[in-house]
Amino acid sequence: MLNRVVIVGGGTAGWMTASYFKAAFGDRIDITLVESGNVGAVGVGEATFSDIRHFFEFLGLKEKDWMPACNATYKLAVRFENWREQGHYYYHPFEQMRSVNGFALTDWWLKEKPTERFDKDCFVMSSVIDAGLSPRHLDGSLIDQPFDEGAEEMHGLTMSEHQGKTQFPYAYHFEAALLAKYLTQYSVDRGVKHIIDDVSHVDLDERGWITGVRTGEHGDLTGDLFIDCTGFRGLLLNKALEEPFISYQDTLPNDSAVALQVPMDMEKRGIRPCTTATAQDAGWIWTIPLMGRVGTGYVYAKDYLSPDEAERTLREFVGPAAADVEANHIKMRIGRSRNSWVKNCVGIGLASGFVEPLESTGIFFIHHAIEQLVKNFPGPDWDATYRNRYNDAVSHVMDGVREFLVLHYVAAKRQDNQYWKDTKTRAVPDGLAERLEKWKTQLPDSETIFPYYHGLPAYSYMCVLLGMGGIDVKPSPGLALTDSAAAQREFADIREKTRQLTETLPKAYDYFSQWH
Ligand SMILES: Cc1cc2nc3c(=O)[nH]c(=O)nc-3n(C[C@H](O)[C@H](O)[C@H](O)COP(=O)(O)OP(=O)(O)OC[C@H]3O[C@@H](n4cnc5c(N)ncnc54)[C@H](O)[C@@H]3O)c2cc1C
Ligand SMILES: N[C@@H](Cc1c[nH]c2cc(Cl)ccc12)C(=O)O
Predict the structure, then answer these.
(1) Which end of the chain is more exposed for a tag (fewer CB within 10 A), N or C?
(2) Residue 239 annotated in active site
(3) What are the pLDDT digits (tens) for 324-366?
(4) Among the options 22, 75, 120, 343, which is catalytic?
Protein backbone atom coordinates (compact mmCIF):
# COMPACT_ATOMS: atom_id res chain seq x y z
CA MET A 1 0.00 0.00 0.00
CA LEU A 2 1.33 3.44 -0.89
CA ASN A 3 1.22 5.19 2.44
CA ARG A 4 4.62 6.67 3.34
CA VAL A 5 4.59 10.45 2.84
CA VAL A 6 7.56 12.78 3.26
CA ILE A 7 6.75 16.50 3.46
CA VAL A 8 9.67 18.90 3.00
CA GLY A 9 8.90 22.31 4.48
CA GLY A 10 7.22 23.46 7.66
CA GLY A 11 5.48 26.68 6.66
CA THR A 12 1.71 27.03 6.40
CA ALA A 13 1.63 24.64 3.42
CA GLY A 14 3.63 21.91 5.13
CA TRP A 15 1.66 21.86 8.35
CA MET A 16 -1.74 22.31 6.71
CA THR A 17 -0.88 19.27 4.56
CA ALA A 18 0.38 17.17 7.46
CA SER A 19 -2.59 17.94 9.71
CA TYR A 20 -5.23 17.43 6.99
CA PHE A 21 -3.67 14.11 5.88
CA LYS A 22 -3.73 12.85 9.46
CA ALA A 23 -7.38 13.89 9.80
CA ALA A 24 -8.16 12.15 6.49
CA PHE A 25 -6.11 8.96 6.75
CA GLY A 26 -5.37 8.56 10.47
CA ASP A 27 -2.82 5.89 11.33
CA ARG A 28 -3.13 4.31 7.91
CA ILE A 29 -0.64 6.86 6.64
CA ASP A 30 2.92 7.43 7.81
CA ILE A 31 4.00 11.07 7.61
CA THR A 32 7.42 12.59 8.16
CA LEU A 33 7.79 16.36 7.95
CA VAL A 34 11.28 17.83 7.71
CA GLU A 35 11.84 21.54 7.92
CA SER A 36 15.01 23.61 8.00
CA GLY A 37 16.03 25.28 11.24
CA ASN A 38 18.03 27.75 9.14
CA VAL A 39 15.67 28.71 6.32
CA GLY A 40 12.66 30.56 7.68
CA ALA A 41 9.09 30.34 6.47
CA VAL A 42 7.94 33.32 4.39
CA GLY A 43 6.29 34.65 7.54
CA VAL A 44 3.20 36.22 6.00
CA GLY A 45 -0.16 34.87 4.85
CA GLU A 46 -2.67 36.07 7.42
CA ALA A 47 -6.01 36.58 5.64
CA THR A 48 -8.19 33.86 4.13
CA PHE A 49 -11.25 32.86 2.16
CA SER A 50 -14.40 31.94 4.12
CA ASP A 51 -14.00 28.41 2.73
CA ILE A 52 -11.14 27.83 5.18
CA ARG A 53 -13.74 26.89 7.81
CA HIS A 54 -14.12 23.56 5.95
CA PHE A 55 -10.42 22.95 6.74
CA PHE A 56 -10.84 23.52 10.48
CA GLU A 57 -14.11 21.55 10.54
CA PHE A 58 -12.36 18.63 8.79
CA LEU A 59 -9.72 18.68 11.52
CA GLY A 60 -12.50 18.65 14.12
CA LEU A 61 -11.49 22.08 15.39
CA LYS A 62 -13.89 24.72 16.71
CA GLU A 63 -13.06 28.43 16.55
CA LYS A 64 -12.40 28.57 20.31
CA ASP A 65 -9.86 25.78 19.91
CA TRP A 66 -7.53 27.61 17.57
CA MET A 67 -8.46 31.31 17.17
CA PRO A 68 -7.23 32.57 20.57
CA ALA A 69 -3.94 30.68 20.06
CA CYS A 70 -3.44 32.43 16.71
CA ASN A 71 -4.56 35.96 17.73
CA ALA A 72 -7.24 35.52 15.09
CA THR A 73 -10.06 37.87 14.16
CA TYR A 74 -12.94 37.72 11.68
CA LYS A 75 -12.59 39.00 8.12
CA LEU A 76 -15.90 40.13 6.61
CA ALA A 77 -14.53 41.44 3.28
CA VAL A 78 -11.64 43.03 1.50
CA ARG A 79 -11.97 46.83 1.50
CA PHE A 80 -10.42 48.40 -1.60
CA GLU A 81 -9.34 51.99 -0.89
CA ASN A 82 -8.14 54.62 -3.44
CA TRP A 83 -8.32 52.26 -6.44
CA ARG A 84 -10.90 54.48 -8.18
CA GLU A 85 -9.81 57.84 -6.78
CA GLN A 86 -8.38 59.20 -3.51
CA GLY A 87 -10.82 58.72 -0.65
CA HIS A 88 -13.07 56.20 -2.41
CA TYR A 89 -13.55 52.71 -1.04
CA TYR A 90 -15.81 49.70 -1.55
CA TYR A 91 -16.14 46.21 -0.04
CA HIS A 92 -15.93 42.75 -1.56
CA PRO A 93 -17.86 40.86 1.15
CA PHE A 94 -18.77 37.23 1.90
CA GLU A 95 -22.50 37.67 1.21
CA GLN A 96 -24.67 35.99 -1.40
CA MET A 97 -25.94 38.36 -4.10
CA ARG A 98 -29.72 38.60 -4.04
CA SER A 99 -31.83 38.33 -7.23
CA VAL A 100 -35.20 39.89 -8.10
CA ASN A 101 -37.36 38.59 -10.97
CA GLY A 102 -34.39 36.80 -12.49
CA PHE A 103 -32.01 39.76 -12.38
CA ALA A 104 -29.13 40.18 -9.90
CA LEU A 105 -29.79 42.96 -7.41
CA THR A 106 -26.68 44.70 -8.74
CA ASP A 107 -28.35 44.85 -12.15
CA TRP A 108 -31.31 46.58 -10.53
CA TRP A 109 -28.84 48.84 -8.72
CA LEU A 110 -27.32 49.92 -12.04
CA LYS A 111 -30.80 50.91 -13.21
CA GLU A 112 -32.26 52.38 -9.98
CA LYS A 113 -29.10 53.71 -8.25
CA PRO A 114 -30.64 54.06 -4.73
CA THR A 115 -27.30 55.57 -3.61
CA GLU A 116 -23.75 55.79 -5.00
CA ARG A 117 -22.65 52.82 -2.77
CA PHE A 118 -23.58 49.60 -4.59
CA ASP A 119 -21.91 47.64 -1.79
CA LYS A 120 -24.13 49.19 0.89
CA ASP A 121 -27.31 49.04 -1.20
CA CYS A 122 -26.81 45.37 -2.21
CA PHE A 123 -25.03 43.91 0.82
CA VAL A 124 -25.84 44.08 4.52
CA MET A 125 -22.31 43.33 5.61
CA SER A 126 -20.83 46.56 4.21
CA SER A 127 -22.58 48.57 6.94
CA VAL A 128 -21.66 46.00 9.59
CA ILE A 129 -18.00 46.48 8.66
CA ASP A 130 -18.32 50.27 8.53
CA ALA A 131 -19.60 50.07 12.11
CA GLY A 132 -16.67 47.82 13.17
CA LEU A 133 -18.96 45.02 14.32
CA SER A 134 -18.70 41.27 14.84
CA PRO A 135 -20.92 38.91 12.76
CA ARG A 136 -21.54 36.92 15.96
CA HIS A 137 -23.35 38.12 19.06
CA LEU A 138 -21.46 37.94 22.37
CA ASP A 139 -23.14 34.59 23.10
CA GLY A 140 -21.56 33.21 19.90
CA SER A 141 -24.78 33.09 17.89
CA LEU A 142 -24.30 33.99 14.25
CA ILE A 143 -26.38 36.59 12.46
CA ASP A 144 -29.33 34.85 10.86
CA GLN A 145 -28.41 33.31 7.51
CA PRO A 146 -30.39 32.00 4.52
CA PHE A 147 -28.96 28.63 5.62
CA ASP A 148 -28.43 26.73 8.86
CA GLU A 149 -24.79 27.05 9.95
CA GLY A 150 -24.85 23.63 11.51
CA ALA A 151 -26.85 21.87 8.79
CA GLU A 152 -25.62 18.32 8.25
CA GLU A 153 -25.97 18.41 4.47
CA MET A 154 -23.20 21.00 4.25
CA HIS A 155 -20.69 19.00 6.27
CA GLY A 156 -18.30 16.77 4.40
CA LEU A 157 -18.45 18.75 1.17
CA THR A 158 -15.19 19.89 -0.36
CA MET A 159 -14.91 23.57 -1.16
CA SER A 160 -15.54 23.11 -4.87
CA GLU A 161 -18.63 20.98 -4.16
CA HIS A 162 -19.87 23.58 -1.70
CA GLN A 163 -19.56 26.74 -3.83
CA GLY A 164 -22.87 28.24 -4.84
CA LYS A 165 -24.83 26.32 -2.21
CA THR A 166 -24.31 28.82 0.61
CA GLN A 167 -22.07 31.80 1.33
CA PHE A 168 -20.68 31.81 4.85
CA PRO A 169 -20.46 35.43 6.05
CA TYR A 170 -16.84 35.64 7.17
CA ALA A 171 -13.28 34.40 6.87
CA TYR A 172 -10.36 34.76 9.28
CA HIS A 173 -7.23 36.75 9.93
CA PHE A 174 -4.59 34.85 11.90
CA GLU A 175 -0.87 35.03 12.71
CA ALA A 176 0.78 32.69 10.19
CA ALA A 177 3.56 31.58 12.51
CA LEU A 178 1.11 30.84 15.33
CA LEU A 179 -1.14 28.80 13.02
CA ALA A 180 1.86 26.76 11.83
CA LYS A 181 2.80 26.20 15.50
CA TYR A 182 -0.76 25.15 16.37
CA LEU A 183 -0.95 22.73 13.44
CA THR A 184 2.50 21.36 14.31
CA GLN A 185 1.21 20.31 17.72
CA TYR A 186 -2.03 18.96 16.20
CA SER A 187 0.01 16.88 13.72
CA VAL A 188 2.67 15.59 16.11
CA ASP A 189 -0.04 14.63 18.61
CA ARG A 190 -1.50 12.45 15.84
CA GLY A 191 1.75 10.72 14.95
CA VAL A 192 3.48 12.94 12.40
CA LYS A 193 7.25 12.56 12.72
CA HIS A 194 8.78 16.06 12.87
CA ILE A 195 12.44 16.52 11.93
CA ILE A 196 14.29 19.84 12.00
CA ASP A 197 17.10 19.56 9.49
CA ASP A 198 18.21 20.80 6.09
CA VAL A 199 17.51 18.75 2.98
CA SER A 200 20.77 18.90 1.02
CA HIS A 201 20.00 16.54 -1.84
CA VAL A 202 17.11 14.81 -3.55
CA ASP A 203 17.81 11.23 -4.66
CA LEU A 204 16.19 10.08 -7.94
CA ASP A 205 15.95 6.60 -9.45
CA GLU A 206 16.60 5.76 -13.09
CA ARG A 207 13.03 6.85 -14.02
CA GLY A 208 13.55 10.22 -12.34
CA TRP A 209 11.24 9.38 -9.43
CA ILE A 210 12.24 10.53 -5.95
CA THR A 211 13.56 7.74 -3.73
CA GLY A 212 14.59 9.89 -0.80
CA VAL A 213 15.81 13.24 0.51
CA ARG A 214 19.20 13.56 2.17
CA THR A 215 19.44 15.56 5.41
CA GLY A 216 22.38 16.92 7.38
CA GLU A 217 21.99 14.92 10.57
CA HIS A 218 19.06 12.54 10.07
CA GLY A 219 20.29 10.56 7.07
CA ASP A 220 18.11 9.80 4.04
CA LEU A 221 14.36 10.10 4.46
CA THR A 222 12.64 7.62 2.17
CA GLY A 223 8.98 7.34 1.25
CA ASP A 224 6.42 6.73 -1.49
CA LEU A 225 5.01 10.24 -2.02
CA PHE A 226 7.05 13.44 -1.54
CA ILE A 227 5.28 16.76 -0.91
CA ASP A 228 7.31 19.86 -1.80
CA CYS A 229 6.37 22.63 0.62
CA THR A 230 9.70 24.44 0.39
CA GLY A 231 8.13 27.72 -0.71
CA PHE A 232 9.20 29.82 -3.69
CA ARG A 233 12.40 27.78 -4.06
CA GLY A 234 10.51 24.62 -5.14
CA LEU A 235 13.44 22.46 -4.08
CA LEU A 236 11.96 19.10 -5.16
CA LEU A 237 9.47 19.99 -7.90
CA ASN A 238 11.27 22.78 -9.78
CA LYS A 239 14.88 22.11 -8.89
CA ALA A 240 15.30 18.32 -8.52
CA LEU A 241 12.61 17.30 -11.03
CA GLU A 242 13.17 20.43 -13.17
CA GLU A 243 9.42 21.04 -13.63
CA PRO A 244 9.14 24.37 -15.50
CA PHE A 245 7.55 27.41 -13.87
CA ILE A 246 5.01 29.43 -15.91
CA SER A 247 5.37 33.10 -14.99
CA TYR A 248 2.32 35.36 -14.77
CA GLN A 249 4.51 38.47 -14.64
CA ASP A 250 3.50 39.64 -18.11
CA THR A 251 0.04 40.31 -16.71
CA LEU A 252 0.71 40.77 -12.97
CA PRO A 253 3.92 42.81 -12.56
CA ASN A 254 3.91 43.13 -8.74
CA ASP A 255 6.87 40.91 -7.78
CA SER A 256 8.03 42.32 -4.46
CA ALA A 257 6.77 43.03 -0.97
CA VAL A 258 7.91 44.54 2.28
CA ALA A 259 6.05 43.53 5.44
CA LEU A 260 5.81 44.85 9.01
CA GLN A 261 4.28 43.22 12.08
CA VAL A 262 3.21 46.26 14.10
CA PRO A 263 2.29 45.77 17.79
CA MET A 264 -0.92 47.70 18.43
CA ASP A 265 -3.35 48.34 21.30
CA MET A 266 -6.38 47.01 19.45
CA GLU A 267 -8.74 48.06 22.23
CA LYS A 268 -7.69 51.67 21.64
CA ARG A 269 -7.49 51.33 17.82
CA GLY A 270 -10.58 49.17 17.44
CA ILE A 271 -10.81 46.34 14.93
CA ARG A 272 -12.07 47.06 11.41
CA PRO A 273 -13.29 43.50 10.62
CA CYS A 274 -11.85 43.26 7.13
CA THR A 275 -8.60 43.19 5.18
CA THR A 276 -7.84 46.58 3.65
CA ALA A 277 -6.03 46.94 0.30
CA THR A 278 -5.00 50.59 -0.12
CA ALA A 279 -3.78 51.49 -3.62
CA GLN A 280 -0.38 53.15 -3.81
CA ASP A 281 1.81 54.68 -6.55
CA ALA A 282 3.30 51.31 -7.54
CA GLY A 283 1.01 48.68 -6.03
CA TRP A 284 -1.00 48.51 -2.81
CA ILE A 285 -0.65 48.13 0.97
CA TRP A 286 -2.46 45.45 2.95
CA THR A 287 -3.66 46.02 6.51
CA ILE A 288 -4.75 42.99 8.53
CA PRO A 289 -6.10 43.43 12.10
CA LEU A 290 -5.09 40.78 14.62
CA MET A 291 -5.41 40.63 18.39
CA GLY A 292 -2.38 42.52 19.66
CA ARG A 293 -0.97 43.65 16.36
CA VAL A 294 -1.57 44.70 12.79
CA GLY A 295 -0.04 42.86 9.84
CA THR A 296 0.79 45.22 7.01
CA GLY A 297 2.87 45.29 3.87
CA TYR A 298 3.42 46.98 0.53
CA VAL A 299 3.04 44.75 -2.56
CA TYR A 300 4.76 46.50 -5.48
CA ALA A 301 6.53 46.10 -8.82
CA LYS A 302 10.30 46.56 -8.57
CA ASP A 303 10.32 48.00 -12.11
CA TYR A 304 8.51 51.04 -10.69
CA LEU A 305 9.75 51.29 -7.08
CA SER A 306 12.89 50.33 -5.14
CA PRO A 307 12.75 48.26 -1.94
CA ASP A 308 13.98 51.27 0.05
CA GLU A 309 11.27 53.53 -1.38
CA ALA A 310 8.67 50.85 -0.70
CA GLU A 311 9.77 50.49 2.91
CA ARG A 312 9.82 54.26 3.40
CA THR A 313 6.30 54.54 1.97
CA LEU A 314 5.06 51.72 4.19
CA ARG A 315 6.56 53.23 7.33
CA GLU A 316 5.00 56.61 6.52
CA PHE A 317 1.66 54.88 5.91
CA VAL A 318 1.77 53.10 9.28
CA GLY A 319 3.15 56.06 11.24
CA PRO A 320 5.13 56.16 14.51
CA ALA A 321 4.00 52.67 15.60
CA ALA A 322 6.30 51.25 12.89
CA ALA A 323 9.40 52.98 14.26
CA ASP A 324 11.11 50.04 15.97
CA VAL A 325 9.68 47.28 13.78
CA GLU A 326 12.00 45.31 11.51
CA ALA A 327 10.97 45.14 7.85
CA ASN A 328 10.73 41.81 6.03
CA HIS A 329 11.58 42.22 2.33
CA ILE A 330 10.23 39.45 0.09
CA LYS A 331 10.83 38.60 -3.57
CA MET A 332 7.67 36.95 -4.90
CA ARG A 333 7.64 34.30 -7.63
CA ILE A 334 4.41 35.03 -9.52
CA GLY A 335 2.94 32.21 -11.57
CA ARG A 336 2.61 28.48 -11.29
CA SER A 337 4.49 25.27 -11.94
CA ARG A 338 3.42 23.79 -15.27
CA ASN A 339 2.28 20.72 -13.31
CA SER A 340 2.22 20.66 -9.52
CA TRP A 341 2.23 16.85 -9.39
CA VAL A 342 5.10 15.23 -11.29
CA LYS A 343 5.96 11.53 -10.89
CA ASN A 344 5.80 10.97 -7.10
CA CYS A 345 6.27 14.61 -6.12
CA VAL A 346 3.50 17.15 -5.41
CA GLY A 347 4.24 20.82 -4.84
CA ILE A 348 1.83 22.54 -2.45
CA GLY A 349 1.85 26.21 -1.43
CA LEU A 350 4.37 28.65 -2.88
CA ALA A 351 6.25 25.71 -4.45
CA SER A 352 3.15 25.06 -6.59
CA GLY A 353 2.28 28.64 -7.48
CA PHE A 354 1.37 32.09 -6.20
CA VAL A 355 -0.27 35.35 -7.14
CA GLU A 356 -0.08 38.58 -5.15
CA PRO A 357 -2.35 38.37 -2.08
CA LEU A 358 -4.87 41.00 -3.30
CA GLU A 359 -7.80 38.68 -2.54
CA SER A 360 -6.02 36.48 0.06
CA THR A 361 -5.78 33.42 -2.18
CA GLY A 362 -2.50 31.76 -1.12
CA ILE A 363 -3.93 29.69 1.70
CA PHE A 364 -7.04 28.98 -0.40
CA PHE A 365 -4.68 27.46 -3.01
CA ILE A 366 -3.10 25.28 -0.32
CA HIS A 367 -6.45 24.12 1.07
CA HIS A 368 -7.80 23.38 -2.41
CA ALA A 369 -4.64 21.46 -3.34
CA ILE A 370 -4.79 19.31 -0.22
CA GLU A 371 -8.51 18.52 -0.75
CA GLN A 372 -7.81 17.55 -4.35
CA LEU A 373 -4.82 15.40 -3.37
CA VAL A 374 -6.90 13.45 -0.85
CA LYS A 375 -9.65 13.09 -3.47
CA ASN A 376 -7.14 11.89 -6.09
CA PHE A 377 -4.69 10.12 -3.79
CA PRO A 378 -2.62 7.68 -5.87
CA GLY A 379 -3.04 3.92 -5.64
CA PRO A 380 -0.08 1.52 -5.66
CA ASP A 381 -0.22 1.39 -9.47
CA TRP A 382 0.19 5.19 -9.72
CA ASP A 383 -2.58 5.37 -12.34
CA ALA A 384 -1.90 8.70 -14.13
CA THR A 385 -5.64 9.46 -14.24
CA TYR A 386 -5.53 10.82 -10.67
CA ARG A 387 -2.42 12.89 -11.29
CA ASN A 388 -3.87 14.39 -14.48
CA ARG A 389 -7.17 15.21 -12.75
CA TYR A 390 -5.25 16.84 -9.91
CA ASN A 391 -3.04 18.90 -12.21
CA ASP A 392 -6.02 20.13 -14.22
CA ALA A 393 -7.91 21.23 -11.09
CA VAL A 394 -4.92 22.99 -9.53
CA SER A 395 -3.87 24.73 -12.77
CA HIS A 396 -7.43 25.96 -13.40
CA VAL A 397 -7.74 27.38 -9.89
CA MET A 398 -4.55 29.42 -10.23
CA ASP A 399 -5.23 30.53 -13.81
CA GLY A 400 -8.75 31.58 -12.78
CA VAL A 401 -7.58 33.60 -9.78
CA ARG A 402 -4.87 35.20 -11.92
CA GLU A 403 -7.50 36.42 -14.36
CA PHE A 404 -9.68 37.67 -11.49
CA LEU A 405 -6.77 39.71 -10.10
CA VAL A 406 -5.86 41.17 -13.50
CA LEU A 407 -9.48 42.37 -13.73
CA HIS A 408 -8.88 44.53 -10.63
CA TYR A 409 -6.11 46.46 -12.42
CA VAL A 410 -7.88 46.67 -15.79
CA ALA A 411 -11.05 47.94 -14.08
CA ALA A 412 -9.37 50.37 -11.65
CA LYS A 413 -10.18 53.96 -12.64
CA ARG A 414 -6.81 55.36 -11.45
CA GLN A 415 -4.44 56.46 -14.21
CA ASP A 416 -2.58 59.18 -12.32
CA ASN A 417 0.95 57.88 -12.97
CA GLN A 418 2.82 55.53 -15.30
CA TYR A 419 2.27 52.49 -13.08
CA TRP A 420 -1.50 52.92 -13.21
CA LYS A 421 -1.53 53.98 -16.88
CA ASP A 422 0.34 50.77 -17.71
CA THR A 423 -2.36 48.66 -16.01
CA LYS A 424 -4.69 49.64 -18.87
CA THR A 425 -2.36 48.74 -21.74
CA ARG A 426 -0.66 45.61 -20.34
CA ALA A 427 -1.48 42.18 -21.83
CA VAL A 428 -4.43 40.33 -20.27
CA PRO A 429 -4.74 36.52 -19.96
CA ASP A 430 -6.36 34.65 -22.86
CA GLY A 431 -10.12 34.77 -22.51
CA LEU A 432 -10.35 37.86 -20.30
CA ALA A 433 -10.54 40.30 -23.22
CA GLU A 434 -13.61 38.51 -24.60
CA ARG A 435 -15.19 38.29 -21.16
CA LEU A 436 -14.60 42.02 -20.62
CA GLU A 437 -16.50 42.81 -23.84
CA LYS A 438 -19.46 40.74 -22.60
CA TRP A 439 -19.43 42.47 -19.22
CA LYS A 440 -19.71 45.92 -20.77
CA THR A 441 -23.25 45.05 -21.87
CA GLN A 442 -24.26 42.82 -18.97
CA LEU A 443 -22.89 42.13 -15.49
CA PRO A 444 -20.92 38.87 -15.03
CA ASP A 445 -22.88 35.74 -14.22
CA SER A 446 -21.91 32.11 -13.67
CA GLU A 447 -21.96 31.57 -17.46
CA THR A 448 -19.56 34.38 -18.33
CA ILE A 449 -16.83 34.21 -15.66
CA PHE A 450 -13.76 31.95 -15.84
CA PRO A 451 -15.28 28.59 -16.79
CA TYR A 452 -13.50 26.28 -14.32
CA TYR A 453 -13.74 26.20 -10.50
CA HIS A 454 -11.41 28.84 -9.08
CA GLY A 455 -13.16 29.70 -5.83
CA LEU A 456 -14.82 32.96 -6.86
CA PRO A 457 -18.53 33.37 -7.63
CA ALA A 458 -19.97 35.78 -10.20
CA TYR A 459 -20.81 38.37 -7.53
CA SER A 460 -17.10 38.71 -6.75
CA TYR A 461 -16.59 39.87 -10.35
CA MET A 462 -19.55 42.26 -10.03
CA CYS A 463 -17.89 43.86 -7.00
CA VAL A 464 -14.72 44.52 -8.98
CA LEU A 465 -16.54 46.03 -11.95
CA LEU A 466 -18.90 48.18 -9.87
CA GLY A 467 -16.28 49.09 -7.27
CA MET A 468 -13.26 49.94 -9.39
CA GLY A 469 -15.20 52.33 -11.61
CA GLY A 470 -12.94 52.17 -14.64
CA ILE A 471 -15.26 50.14 -16.88
CA ASP A 472 -18.72 51.42 -17.72
CA VAL A 473 -21.22 48.58 -17.10
CA LYS A 474 -24.78 48.88 -18.37
CA PRO A 475 -27.95 47.43 -16.76
CA SER A 476 -29.78 44.70 -18.67
CA PRO A 477 -32.16 46.38 -21.15
CA GLY A 478 -35.03 44.15 -19.99
CA LEU A 479 -35.12 46.00 -16.67
CA ALA A 480 -36.61 49.02 -18.42
CA LEU A 481 -39.74 46.93 -19.09
CA THR A 482 -39.84 45.26 -15.66
CA ASP A 483 -41.76 46.59 -12.65
CA SER A 484 -39.14 47.70 -10.11
CA ALA A 485 -41.43 47.41 -7.06
CA ALA A 486 -39.99 44.05 -5.99
CA ALA A 487 -36.43 45.38 -6.31
CA GLN A 488 -37.35 48.45 -4.24
CA ARG A 489 -38.71 46.10 -1.56
CA GLU A 490 -35.42 44.16 -1.62
CA PHE A 491 -33.38 47.33 -1.19
CA ALA A 492 -35.69 48.33 1.68
CA ASP A 493 -35.25 44.90 3.26
CA ILE A 494 -31.45 45.31 3.17
CA ARG A 495 -31.76 48.74 4.80
CA GLU A 496 -34.00 47.31 7.55
CA LYS A 497 -31.73 44.28 8.17
CA THR A 498 -28.74 46.63 8.24
CA ARG A 499 -30.48 48.80 10.85
CA GLN A 500 -31.30 45.80 13.05
CA LEU A 501 -27.77 44.39 12.90
CA THR A 502 -25.93 47.64 13.45
CA GLU A 503 -28.13 48.25 16.52
CA THR A 504 -27.61 44.78 18.07
CA LEU A 505 -24.19 43.33 17.12
CA PRO A 506 -21.16 43.82 19.42
CA LYS A 507 -17.98 45.61 18.40
CA ALA A 508 -15.47 43.21 16.84
CA TYR A 509 -12.92 43.95 19.57
CA ASP A 510 -15.46 43.29 22.35
CA TYR A 511 -16.31 39.91 20.85
CA PHE A 512 -12.69 38.74 20.78
CA SER A 513 -11.67 40.30 24.07
CA GLN A 514 -13.87 37.58 25.66
CA TRP A 515 -11.16 35.09 24.60
CA HIS A 516 -8.05 37.05 25.54
C1 LIG B 1 3.94 39.17 0.80
C2 LIG B 1 3.00 38.01 0.88
C3 LIG B 1 1.74 38.18 1.48
C4 LIG B 1 0.87 37.09 1.57
N5 LIG B 1 -0.39 37.26 2.11
C6 LIG B 1 -1.26 36.22 2.11
C7 LIG B 1 -2.58 36.36 2.63
O8 LIG B 1 -2.96 37.41 3.15
N9 LIG B 1 -3.42 35.29 2.55
C10 LIG B 1 -3.03 34.10 2.02
O11 LIG B 1 -3.84 33.19 1.95
N12 LIG B 1 -1.75 33.92 1.54
C13 LIG B 1 -0.89 34.95 1.58
N14 LIG B 1 0.38 34.77 1.12
C15 LIG B 1 0.80 33.42 0.72
C16 LIG B 1 1.18 32.66 1.99
O17 LIG B 1 2.16 33.38 2.68
C18 LIG B 1 1.73 31.29 1.62
O19 LIG B 1 0.81 30.62 0.83
C20 LIG B 1 1.96 30.46 2.86
O21 LIG B 1 2.77 31.15 3.77
C22 LIG B 1 2.58 29.14 2.47
O23 LIG B 1 3.92 29.28 2.32
P24 LIG B 1 4.72 27.91 2.11
O25 LIG B 1 4.49 27.05 3.32
O26 LIG B 1 4.38 27.38 0.78
O27 LIG B 1 6.24 28.41 2.05
P28 LIG B 1 7.14 29.00 3.20
O29 LIG B 1 6.35 29.69 4.24
O30 LIG B 1 8.21 29.77 2.48
O31 LIG B 1 7.82 27.72 3.90
C32 LIG B 1 8.90 27.02 3.29
C33 LIG B 1 9.39 25.97 4.25
O34 LIG B 1 10.38 25.18 3.58
C35 LIG B 1 11.47 24.98 4.46
N36 LIG B 1 12.67 24.74 3.66
C37 LIG B 1 13.15 25.48 2.65
N38 LIG B 1 14.28 24.91 2.18
C39 LIG B 1 14.50 23.79 2.92
C40 LIG B 1 15.50 22.77 2.93
N41 LIG B 1 16.52 22.79 2.07
N42 LIG B 1 15.41 21.79 3.82
C43 LIG B 1 14.38 21.74 4.70
N44 LIG B 1 13.39 22.66 4.75
C45 LIG B 1 13.48 23.68 3.85
C46 LIG B 1 11.53 26.25 5.28
O47 LIG B 1 12.21 26.01 6.48
C48 LIG B 1 10.03 26.52 5.51
O49 LIG B 1 9.61 25.76 6.63
C50 LIG B 1 1.27 35.83 1.06
C51 LIG B 1 2.53 35.66 0.49
C52 LIG B 1 3.39 36.74 0.40
C53 LIG B 1 4.74 36.53 -0.22
N1 LIG C 1 -15.37 30.90 -2.09
C2 LIG C 1 -14.91 32.21 -1.64
C3 LIG C 1 -15.44 33.28 -2.56
C4 LIG C 1 -15.64 34.63 -1.99
C5 LIG C 1 -16.86 35.19 -1.82
N6 LIG C 1 -16.69 36.47 -1.29
C7 LIG C 1 -15.38 36.68 -1.13
C8 LIG C 1 -14.73 37.76 -0.58
C9 LIG C 1 -13.36 37.71 -0.48
CL10 LIG C 1 -12.54 39.04 0.21
C11 LIG C 1 -12.66 36.58 -0.92
C12 LIG C 1 -13.31 35.46 -1.46
C13 LIG C 1 -14.68 35.54 -1.55
C14 LIG C 1 -15.33 32.37 -0.19
O15 LIG C 1 -16.50 32.17 0.10
O16 LIG C 1 -14.45 32.67 0.63
Answers:
(1) N
(2) no
(3) 999 999 999 999 999 999 999 999 999 999 999 999 999 999 9
(4) 75
